[in-house]
């Protein structure tokens, strides 16, 4: 391994944004440590010519092992971490069990922060480092039937903002990427989580869930203005190489619009806009059963 080559550790590389980002960063001269939760996905990453390790960010032992293995591979060097691993548990707030909420937060929040904390001592010793969190437009603009995911991204942004303040005066920089609709397996994975955690037939929201299931199973782009994974990878490269990286990178037009609208619209108006943008059926989405 080239000792002068910058090194980035990326979580959640089995598909979508993480996979594309790993390949993109490698093509742009970085030594990439790509990670995935399942061993067969690790083997797949290795077949693509990536250096890959197993990492389940919901498991503290897995995090410790992965960080140690990374440093063994790189001779103790690590310049950046991209906290990308995440998923969504769809469902109305009133249908979310404590176990479902804990499951959502273990990966999207606790895992990202624990992985970050595991590399921060190294960053402090070497005097530099970049930390990037993959958040979402839903990290500041909530939409219905995404309560667990909304809350996890809101929490992640709170941690990131706090950490950025605590690192002022160092050369350790923290950035958030806030994508809107991006081509990925997010919807397919979300539908599997929905079936696992939500008893839709017994729910007051059963009609809305039927509409939601159609949305999650729909083929093609998830929404207008959907961008390919490359849009996030290009922003990641900027966050890792800019002399003064931004606190937030808003990817896709919807993210940029909602950031603006949240600051000028009354909450009641914004709720209507977000409901329409969510893709849920008006009326059904408010819990009113069809006659």
CATH topology: Rossmann fold
H/E series: EHEHEHEHEHEHHHEHH
How many beta-strand runs? 7
| Overall number of structural domains | 1
Radius of gyration: 19 Å
Continuous helix count? 10
Plain-language structure description:
This protein has 10 helices and 7 strands. By secondary structure, it is of the alpha/beta class. The protein has one domain: NAD(P)-binding Rossmann-like Domain (Rossmann fold, 3-Layer(aba) Sandwich). Strands 3-2-1-4-5-6-7 form a 7-stranded parallel beta sheet, sandwiched between helices. Helix 1 packs across helix 8 (230-241) and helix 4 (98-126) runs parallel beside helix 5. It starts with 6 loop residues before the first strand and ends in a 13-residue tail after the last helix. Residues 287-291 have low confidence and may be disordered.
């Amino acid at each position: 391994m080239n000792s002068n080559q910058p090194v980035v550790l990326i979580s959640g590389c089995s598909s979508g944004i993480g996979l594309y980002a790993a390949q993109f960063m490698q093509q742009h001269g970085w030594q990439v440590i790509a990670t995935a939760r399942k061993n067969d996905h690790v083997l797949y990453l290795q077949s693509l010519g990536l250096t890959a390790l197993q990492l389940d960010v919901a498991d503290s032992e897995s995090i410790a092992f992965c960080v140690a293995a990374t440093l063994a591979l790189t001779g103790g060097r690590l310049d950046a971490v991209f906290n990308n691993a995440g998923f969504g548990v769809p469902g109305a707030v009133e249908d979310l069990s404590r176990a479902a909420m804990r499951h959502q937060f273990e990966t999207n929040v606790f895992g990202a922060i624990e992985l970050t904390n595991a590399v921060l001592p190294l960053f402090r010793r070497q005097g530099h480092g970049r930390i990037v969190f993959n958040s979402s437009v839903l990290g500041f603009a909530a939409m219905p039937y995404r309560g667990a995911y909304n809350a996890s991204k809101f929490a992640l942004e709170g941690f990131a903002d706090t950490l950025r303040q605590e690192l002022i005066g160092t050369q350790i920089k923290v950035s958030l990427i806030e994508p809107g609709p991006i081509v990925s397996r997010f919807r397919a994975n979300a539908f599997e989580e929905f079936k696992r955690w939500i008893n839709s037939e017994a729910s007051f929201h059963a009609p809305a869930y039927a509409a939601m299931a159609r949305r999650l199973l729909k083929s093609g782009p998830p929404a207008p203005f959907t961008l390919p994974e490359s849009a996030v990878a290009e922003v990641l490269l900027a966050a890792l190489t800019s002399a003064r990286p931004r606190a937030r990178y808003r990817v896709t037009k919807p993210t940029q619009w909602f950031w603006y609208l949240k600051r000028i619209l009354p909450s009641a108006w914004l709720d209507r806009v977000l409901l329409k943008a969510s893709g849920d059926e008006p009326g059904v989405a408010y819990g009113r059963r069809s006659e």
